[in-house]
Amino acid sequence: MSRDESDRRQAPPKQLGRYRIVSEVGRGATAFVYKAYDPQLDRFLALKVLRPELADDKTYRTAFIKEARLAAQLTHPGIVTIFDVDITDNKPYIAMELLEGATLEQILQAQGKLNLKTVLAMCQQLSRSLNYAHKQGVVHRDIKPGNIVVLKDKKTVKVTDFGIAQLDDNVSHSGKRSDKVLGTPEYMAPEQVLGKPMDNRSDLYALGVVMFRMLMAVPPFRNDDLGTLFKDIVKRRPPEIQIEEEKVRDDVQDLIRKLLQKSPDKRFQSAANVTAELSKIQAKLGTVKPKKRKSFVSLRLRWTATMAGVVFLSMCISLAIVYFVQYRSLSGITFDYGRSIARMLAFESAEPMLLDDSVGLNAIIQESSKNEQLTSVFVMNTDNQIVASTDESMLGKNFAPPAERELEQAIESTRIYQRELENGKVLFDIEMPIVYSSAELGSLYVTFNAESMFLASKTTLITMLVVMMITLMVVFLITLGLARRTSKDFQRITQAINKLVGGRYDARLISERNDESGQLFMTFNRLAESIENKLEKADSANQSAKLGKIKKSQNKLPDTSKSSVDLEETIELNIEN
Fold first, then answer.
1. 148 in helix, strand or coil?
2. CATH number at residue 25
3. What domain range is 510 assigned to?
4. Is 203 among the catalytic positions?
5. pLDDT tens figures, 102-146
6. Are residues 423 and 277 in the same domain?
7. Catalytic one among 7, 142, 336, 539?
8. C-alpha to C-alpha distance for 344 and 324, rounded to whole angstroms
9. 338: how many CB neighbours lie within 10 A of its CB?
10. How many CA atoms lie within 13 A of 469 on its CB side?
11. pTM value surpassing 0.85
């Protein structure tokens, strides 16, 4: 039975130890990965279970357990966290952090290649993770896109699968030669292909291959024949990369070239060196922007601009609302007026149409033409033939409504349309039936202009804009005045503090204000007075000490005939000195 057939028949277990299996997440060459629930800690995690056909194999079993023991020692944001390792029902498993995202392999297969900024950011995280692992004496030995997970935030990457990782030869068994070549062929370092001892620099070679593929969509060496592939890895030079960012093109090429050196001694000697080089390239590219010192912005300018902006935004919103409401209201009034005129004409036209009185009907229509708002009136019979109109040239013709019109309102059998002429003039058309005693005798089509409605809307809009500008100017000036006054208060307190720093302890602020600024001035005055009093007491104590020393020195003088006046002068002279 082939492995594929075995996989199809292999159903995920429902329980493994204390963990409840939810679903299968994936499967690899050596293990199945399940999403599981831990009732003891009330959380979901990933269970990696060794394949049944490999569980009894000592080599695979040892490598599998080794992954857990090595990875469990690593606690880093860029490395998957191991919670538990155990064997249940002859099934070795590892309980680890459940990562929500996609592997870098899946992303590269979908997108082909990534932009340089993303590559630099991801590789910097990977190099930091590897640097941490290498310091703990752990070499991954299988760095590849399939073992790198990009989380849902699309910013964090984590290294997984330490299944073939080994303790650094420098930490454990120095000089030990591996009996097996483990890893993924395209990402193997030359020493790994040759079965030579490996160290942290082998992971750095694989990191270079990953970076190459992220930029070029393919690894540097590809071949279906493993012998030819291994020969290329050991002897051939990798092709040059091609990126658009000209100012860092050479730097990126040099970085990858050094990572892919055949001799480990010619590569970077630590992942920390790779991180530093990536940071330099990022800074040169401009992805890491230097922090700029914030420039000084006066409160006067900030408050004035803020208040003016708030008022302007509020008034713009208010203006839009008022204009919209007014337009709807005027439209309703205009439609009602037009509908009333049309209804009256339809009512007056019903009897002449019933009696077939074309003279009377046209007289009614011609009389309606005296209304300045009515542009045209058409009366049609049931055959859609014009029997009366303000345009006598249209009599006897079939009526055809304008082509470009939009339906604005429909109430029962009455419809109102809007259309715009080439000169920008807006017209409204009303279409309604002519009915007499529930019998439809024809239809009426009335066109009237809405110039007065739009004129009223424009007038209101202009008036509101003027009011808004006046209000904005008033608010601007008032806020500017208040901000200027507050700014002056802060300038005064700043100058006074600078005097205090310069030794002017007699500096005081005079203010009769009974607000926060006044309280600030009073607090400063009390502070300055307190400092001045303490300094005066200190000076007084120093003077007393000097006076005592002088008196003691005078008592020791051999000439006792000196007058008290001379003594006092001597004391004063010494004090002044």
1. strand
2. 3.30.200.20
3. 505-577
4. no
5. 889 989 998 888 989 999 999 999 999 999 989 988 888 889 998
6. no
7. 142
8. 30
9. 22
10. 5
11. no
